[in-house]
Sequence to fold (362 residues):
Amino acid sequence: MQKSREMRDELPEDFYIPMSLDTPNLTALSPFLVPQTHLGSPGIFKAMAAFMFLLIVLGVPINALTVVCTAKYKKLRSHLNYILVNLAVANLLVVCVGSTTAFYSFWQMYFALGPLACKIEGFAATLGGMVSLWSLAVVAFERFLVICKPLGNFTFRGTHAVLGCAITWIFGLIASVPPLFGWSRYIPEGLQCSCGPDWYTTDNKWNNESYVIFLFCFCFGFPLSVIVFSYGRLLLTLRAVAKQQEQSATTQKAEREVTKMVVVMVLGFLVCWLPYCAFALWVVTHRGHPFDVGLASIPSVFSKASTVYNPVIYVFMNKQFRSCMLKLVFCGRSPFGDDDDVSGSSQATQVSSVSSSQVSPA
Fold:
């Protein structure tokens, strides 16, 4: 056991294999030099490569269409839709850098692009992921401001929307830059074919542990609190309106649909980020406990998959966006007859249409 620990301590700074391997020279098993078939069967690597390819095939068109449609159709350029475009841009960053690099690496069965590419991929994927994560919180807070009117006659303007987008990139950089300067580091994770922050290394005077705790509080706990608070207040506001209009079928339908959408949005956030946070916290609180490195790749897969299901939740469930996308794809005609006259977010529109005149400022 002592010999194994000494061999781990002698590993270069570019990688760390979080398991005991029966070899006198662990450096020879570097994920930058040789296939990592000692960590899993070739079939597992190929399956992961196929999944990453699927994310690329689905993620690029969905997010690119969001940006293109917003540029093409003036009615989509509402202030409340700015953050959806911001979310699409962040997702494209993750897909084009993170998912493509992971696809190539899983196909080769090792990180063939080298240590520098690993740091670039880890930084870009973390930045895009953090911007995406904070965008979900900003979406919720914007809806809260517009619908619940906590500031009275406050008018949500374009400058506020741009500020919200800027905040997501500032917070994303705050979260993703530190590993480039020594607070944690970007190394191959799981099956060693994608890169992320170092959750594993021990005996580093709480360097990695403190970074994980920072990410958990600042990039998971705080945004989740904003989302739960904002959507919770939104539902309470709509329920109060629905109670005043018990005989209105439109109000009751809006309440049901918005409640369903809010549940989907919160669950989408948790599916995306809870596995990553739970895994990282488990590792830093159970130092020395063995774990399957294959399972360690699952949290990264969930976070990268968000580049597909977040647009589906936040864009495709927006009737106006969906209609414009279908018109663009099918050359001017929507094959499903979507009504493209609905303005703004479907969630915001449904609520505001039944509550704008009845709901007093919170």
